[in-house]
Amino acid sequence: MDIRFKSIDIGTHFFECVAFRRDAYFCSFGTDVGFENSIIGYEALLRQNTLEKGWYYFHIWHKSQLIGQLEFRSFSRSVGTGYVQLIYLIPEYRGLGLGTKLQELIRTQLRDAGCSKAMLCVSRANETALRHYKRSGWEYLFPNPKGKNMDFYQIDL
Q1: What confidence category does residue 136 fall into, taking pLDDT thresholds of 50, 70 and 90?
Q2: Pairing state of beta strands 117-123 and 81-89?
Q3: pTM value?
Q4: Nearest CA to 103 among 132, 62, 74?
Q5: For the purposes of burial, counting CB atoms within 10 Å of the CB of 108, is it exposed (0-12), middle (13-18) or buried (19 or more)?
Q6: DSSP 8-state assignment for residue 74
Q7: Each residue of 33-52: pLDDT tens digit?
């Protein structure tokens, strides 16, 4: 399937950014209770981070349809390790093998930025995501002390 990655146009597609994050939150926790608090300041943060080196925000397109979003950065608390904040596809495009293409873009961008590893945090309740990450080579690191039922995973790039 032919997909394209384009930098997020916040002015045009901010509503979609929030909708994608809301669905990702629901997939992670089985509810959207608490989502509104988690999104406070998101637009300002997104606008600021897109101006900073090391931040990556992409929308994923198939033909003329916006089908997903990636958010990641080339730094974390671990030296040489990037951090993936969001890998999201709309439901109709899940399970079609696109996750591999999304992760390849992330790998390429982070390797080009000097990273040798990437990490992310995933909910234990998001079984679909967990299966995909484990199949893709992500390895369990430790529980997230700030996130209830959340764990960190890492992959070599």
Answers
A1: very high
A2: parallel
A3: 0.95
A4: 132
A5: exposed
A6: S
A7: 999 999 999 999 999 999 99
